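To the structural biology subgroup,

Please find below the input and predicted structure for Dephospho-CoA kinase, which we are adding to the shared reference set this quarter. The sequence is reproduced verbatim from the submission form. If anyone notices a discrepancy with their own records, reply to this email rather than editing the shared folder directly, so we keep one authoritative version.
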Amino acid sequence: MRILGLTGGIGMGKSTTAALLKRAGIRLFDADATVAALQAPHGAALPAIGRLVPGSVRDGVLDRTVLRQAALSSPTVMQGLEAIIHPLVRRARQRFVQRARRDGCRWVVLDIPLLFETGAERICDRVVVVSAPASIQRQRVLRRGRMTPAQIDAVIARQMPDAARRRQADVIIETGLSRHETVRQVRRLLYAMREGSPAAWAAAGGKPA
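Predicted structure (tokenized):
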């Protein structure tokens, strides 16, 4: 079984790319969805989060506004939150990979925003970075209406720079043009995953598998 790592910064179009891969029948581990489950009412991460940020968990429910404000204003809180979440996500990822191997999957996708930051790229056969111009990235996040411009700047500043991700990528999916072009690039990637030939990977913008 081969593992494809999928990553990209906030607002880069990673979720769209992941949805296209999943629609094509590729089994996918969604780190964001895993975190959401851990932070859902009475989720496994809430007791530790409540101790880290007093007042952020009440009656088994996370106050995301309180947690976000604390994390963005304090590097210590952010580090503590990562120390809680990352091991839990890693264990969930390991269970996913084990099940996929047992089921005989040829390829699986690990959709992980912090792929490089957590060292998860080391278990991947190929890494795909989803990228877009900074102006488009910012517009996309602003349209979601969940963060202020200052909060967006803080999140982007804390993430690995897009240029650094691109340097470590085997394949880059450019999402700043059009959805049609994104779909075309993902189709080339799927063809390379299926065929595995040097020519197919070159057409996808990558190296032979």
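Summary notes: Residues 2-203 form a domain with the Rossmann fold fold (CATH 3.40.50.300). The mean pLDDT is 92.

Regards,
Lab coordination
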